[in-house]
Amino acid sequence: MARRRRPEEAGAAGEEAMIVEITPELVERAKKELVRERWLTPYKVATRYGIKVSLAKKLLRELEKEGVIVKFSSNRRSPVYVPRERAPLSPPRGL
C-alpha cells in the first residue's frame, strides 16, 4: 500500500510545490503562451502549468473575461476554449 507524503517530505524529495492560487504572473504567462494553441481545455492547461484542474478552470474563465480567449463549446464537464483570433464567426453545429 502506498504511503502519502507529508508536505515537508515532498520538498525534501525534490518535488515541486503545486500552485494553489492564480497570480498576476501566471495570468500574464498564460496570455503569452496560450494564444498560440489551437484549442484549450482545463486538463490541457492544468498539465501544462502543473496546477489543479479547478484552478485551470478559474484561469480560463479569467482569460475569457479579459477577452483573450472565447468559449467555443461547453458541456457540463469540460468547456473548450479557442483564442480570439481563431474563433469562428458562427457557433459550432449542434449548439
Q: What kind of sheet is the major sheet?
A: 2 strands, antiparallel
What is the overall silhouette? globular
Tell me which CATH architecture of the domain at 19-83 applies here: Orthogonal Bundle
Low-confidence stretches: none
The first-level CATH class of the domain at 19-83 is given as: Mainly Alpha
Question: What number is the mean pLDDT?
Answer: 82
CATH topology descriptor of the domain at 19-83: Arc Repressor Mutant, subunit A
| Strand order of the biggest β-sheet | 1-2
- Oligomeric state of the chains present here: single chain
Pairing-aware structural class of the strands and helices? mainly alpha
Helices, by number, come to: 4
Number of DSSP E strands:
2
Strand content: 5-15%
In N-to-C order, the SSE pattern is HHHHEE
Q: At the fourth CATH level, what is the homologous superfamily of the domain at 19-83?
A: Winged helix-like DNA-binding domain superfamily/Winged helix DNA-binding domain
Distance between the termini: 47 Å
**Helix percentage:** 40-55%
